[in-house]
Amino acid sequence: MKVVHIGLGKTGTTSLQKSVFPRIFDNYNKKELLESLDILLAQSFDLVKYNIFKDKFSSYKDVFISAESLVGWDPEQWSEMLNRNLAAFGKDAVILITIRDPLSYFRSYFQQIVKSGYMTNAEDYFLSEYKYRSVKKSIRPGMSDAINVDKFDLELLIKMYSDAFNKVIVVPLNNISSLNFLEELCNKDDNKLNKLTPPLQKRKNLNLSYSSVAMRLTNYKGRVLEFFGCKQNVLFFYDIKYTLNVLYKGQTPIKKNSIKSMFFKKINWHYLMILISRSPFRSNYKLPCNTYLGKNLSKNKELVRQIENSNSGFVVYE
Q1: What is the residue extent of each domain of the chain?
Q2: From CA 254, how far away is CA 17, in angstroms rounded?
Q3: I need a labelling partner for 166 at 20 to 30 A (CA). Which of 85, 101, 139, 315 fits?
């Protein structure tokens, strides 16, 4: 069986990729396939490289790929990514889609954006159809500058893939820990699946979102760097080096491989923010009240709730 987990991101994907999929599937995220996967995500289409990837993928009888970028982070990309995925994997590949309550999804998604180094406000990132069209020319290809939340329609996304592929499995985040959906993907006995469940339920958060304090500090840091004409970056060492390059006109006082250099490579901004976010006094981040989250917000919430409350806890479209 050929299985492709396309996302969405921020739906427990890291835990599945680290703690579950490698222990179940022998040909999981094979290196030669992952190295070629950028072909599907590239802005410019390279037919030769594309065919090479298709040949590699088709050579496997059983294979499992998990990459949340395959669905497209911006709903504007969904249709194009569907066409690329269909051409690369074929309609017989089983598509696994993981979803999440849209409000918590957008919050976690924005935290990831900030954690990745983008300096932006939620109000300027989640845009209506009208506002997105007005700034579309300034959005850099392949960059997470903004998304069109009016096009974020989970029902449409599921229909697009269920129409194109022979089998599509949709699992909500809140039901992932049961691992019941794995019965649709493999012939493992129940005892084997039960052994996997406790580590997943008790796991340490592998992709912890920044707390409210960490989000504020990162925002302040970005403003300071912007003031000095520097680019935002999650590595604290890089920020200091870049800033000092500006102040000292290219002559950075931190020498390569020096004790200071080694220290700042070890203690970086992301490391410090994760420590703050793991504090027992952690305050969870909330999106600003005036953040626009799309015309389909209520419909998306209801769809996720229905699948969560279904008998199996997931849905299969065949």
Answers
A1: 2-101+149-206+295-317, 212-277
A2: 37
A3: 101
